[in-house]
Design goal:
By secondary structure, the chain is mainly beta. The chain contains 1 helix and 12 strands; from the N terminus they run E-E-E-E-E-E-E-H-E-E-E-E-E. The strands form 4 sheets. It has a 4-stranded antiparallel sheet, with no helix packed on it.
Length: 166
């Protein structure tokens, strides 16, 4: 599959896989803006920002992609940042529809208990490509078929294997 990529800023780093078997392409920070300033021009003097616990920002990558109409790109957290710092993607997974060709932004939030520095060139998230089905038709019905789980929701299946339950 071919995905077109456009470097919107000369300082933008093209995403790359770290290994041949990686499912994601690492996204790199170019600059950081608050939610209310998403249309600001790129900040060429950006170097580092301290992200305090509970704070979130939009990390701009300076790249745009165009995926085939049968695909989407998803922005997912990097597991190492989540484990070490409590840093994650707020709207995970973020969705990039095939018809969006603007700057890819990553909404990062610090869920940890210590400040985390985000610097230009840091790997902040990963980009994963997934198929999309456009031939789905939702059919209204009065009732759905019974299943073993039916409407059992969050936690319905428990946390232990059934063999472990006395």
């Amino acid at each position: 599959m071919k995905v077109l990529i456009n470097r919107l800023h000369p300082g933008a780093i093209i995403p790359e896989q770290q290994t041949k078997a990686s499912s994601g392409f690492d996204l790199y920070a170019l600059d950081v803006v608050s939610a209310g300033n998403v249309s600001d021009p790129y900040n060429d003097s950006f170097e580092t920002i301290e992200l305090r616990p509970g704070q979130w920002v939009l990390v701009r990558t300076g790249i745009a992609i165009q995926v085939p109409s049968t695909m989407e790109a998803q922005i997912r957290p990097r597991s190492g940042l989540a484990l070490k710092h409590g840093l994650t993607v707020l709207n995970s997974p973020g969705t990039i529809d095939a018809d969006y060709t603007g700057d890819i932004g990553v909404i990062l939030i610090n869920l940890g208990n210590k400040p985390v520095d985000i610097s230009k060139g840091d790997r902040v998230a990963q980009l994963v490509f997934q198929p999309v089905h456009h031939d789905i038709e939702l059919l209204p019905v009065k009732q759905l078929s019974f299943t073993q789980r039916s409407n059992g929701g969050f936690g319905h299946t428990g946390t232990k294997r059934s063999a472990d339950i006395a």
